[in-house]
Design brief:
With about 375 residues, this protein is of the alpha/beta class. Helix content is about 45%, strand content about 15%. The strands form 2 sheets. It has a 5-stranded parallel beta sheet, sandwiched between helices. It has a 5-stranded parallel beta sheet with strand order 7-6-8-9-10, with helices on both faces. The N and C termini lie far apart (about 45 Å).
């Protein structure tokens, strides 16, 4: 696929929608943030939860990985307790998630607003547990909105593709912006508004570098690593590789990878590192160790030193003049492009992965 394929190029063919949606992300974020900036918009959404001190983030698949990154961000931004669970865990083991002494506000995330397990989780929380819920979605007037107490709808982020790309980053960004509103952190809100324009400048080079890297090499294993709020992003990166290229990919907390999983490392293992600033030194030690074992390393960092350069087969430096939390969404580009171009290399259509549907709706019978 050429650099011209995408929003302004070919209109049909494998992966065209996915590529267009990946490339549209900074523009889409800008449109979403314009809605959130409207006077009184977020205040109205958050008003029913003004007394909350604990937050539960719920989702399925990619939406659960948004929940992981959003919960970590929420705690760091607001100082309030936040955690993430899959909707299925809440449905099957509710007493392990919500106890009589634990009555959080729940954020239920679903791109379509129609995912069966997300709907059931919201119904259980609102009806059986008397816990207020905030729906986060990219479509309007769907069942989740009617079940929940309040809704954060990011309509510009909806997609044609089966696989979530811009909806993932937009919903994460929207929840971070909401957290900044709750915390009264005007500096963070301002930096989040700066992200779309700054990220646009990194996207083209990143796309080209990863396409050439993936096309020239053969991998049999894929591993994605991240810590703190980056762990949810690592999970999402692994899922993009699995969905778009029908490959087996795993995700771990970066330092956990050395406790057993590193046994799989070979030159045909691609290890994607999402390097944080907060844990930079410790994460760099893992990078050095994995490179010494012969693994192939793709590193995404905001800025890197010579040690990282020496142990990276491909280094992507974002170079964003923003605080760490404000640039989280841009780290997702790497996994999206690896999944896309690996799928295309294998002759697949990343827009329509096998065995998958755009929305998981279970047989109610």
């Amino acid at each position: 696929m050429s650099d011209q394929d995408g929003p302004r190029g070919a209109k049909s063919g494998p992966g065209v929608h996915s590529l267009a949606e990946i490339l549209s992300q900074p523009h889409c974020w800008g449109n979403c943030l314009k809605e959130l900036e409207k006077k009184g918009f977020l205040e109205k959404i958050i008003e029913p939860f003004s007394a909350a001190t604990e937050w539960l983030f719920v989702g399925c698949g990619s939406s659960y990985y948004i929940a992981l990154a959003a919960a970590a961000s929420w705690s760091m931004i607001t100082g309030q307790r936040a955690r993430a669970v899959p909707a299925s865990e809440l449905l099957l083991f509710p007493n392990s998630v919500v106890t009589e002494t634990s009555v959080p506000v729940a954020v239920v995330i679903s791109r379509s607003g129609r995912t069966s397990e997300a709907l059931r989780a919201a119904e259980m929380l609102e009806g059986e547990r008397d816990i207020r819920t905030l729906a986060v979605t990219c479509t309007g007037d769907q069942p989740l909105e009617h079940i929940s107490t309040s809704t954060l709808a990011l309509l510009p982020a909806d997609e044609e593709s089966t696989v979530m790309t811009r909806s993932f980053t937009s919903m994460l960004l929207g929840l971070q912006y909401l957290a900044a509103c709750v915390a009264g952190d005007h500096a963070l809100a301002k930096n989040l508004r700066r992200l779309p324009m700054m990220a646009q400048g990194t996207l083209h080079d990143l796309q080209t570098d990863i396409r050439e890297f993936v096309t020239a090499r053969h991998f049999v294993d894929y591993v994605c690593l991240g810590q703190g709020p980056f762990y949810g992003l690592a999970c999402e990166a692994a899922l993009k590789v699995t969905e778009m290229s029908v490959s087996y990919a795993q995700s771990f907390h970066t330092l956990e990878f050395r406790h057993g999983p590193k046994s799989i490392v070979t030159p045909e293992t691609l290890i994607l590192f999402l390097l944080s600033e907060s844990g930079y030194e410790a994460e760099c030690e893992v990078l050095q160790e994995i490179k010494s074992l012969g693994g192939t390393t793709l590193v995404i960092a905001n800025r890197a030193d010579e040690r990282v350069r020496a142990h990276s087969d491909l280094l992507i430096e974002l170079g964003l003049e923003l605080p760490e939390l404000a640039r989280l969404a841009a780290y997702v580009f790497g996994g999206q492009f690896v999944g896309l171009y690996t799928g295309l290399k294998r002759g697949l259509d990343p827009d329509h992965p096998r065995n998958l549907s755009r929305v998981v709706i279970l047989d109610e019978d």
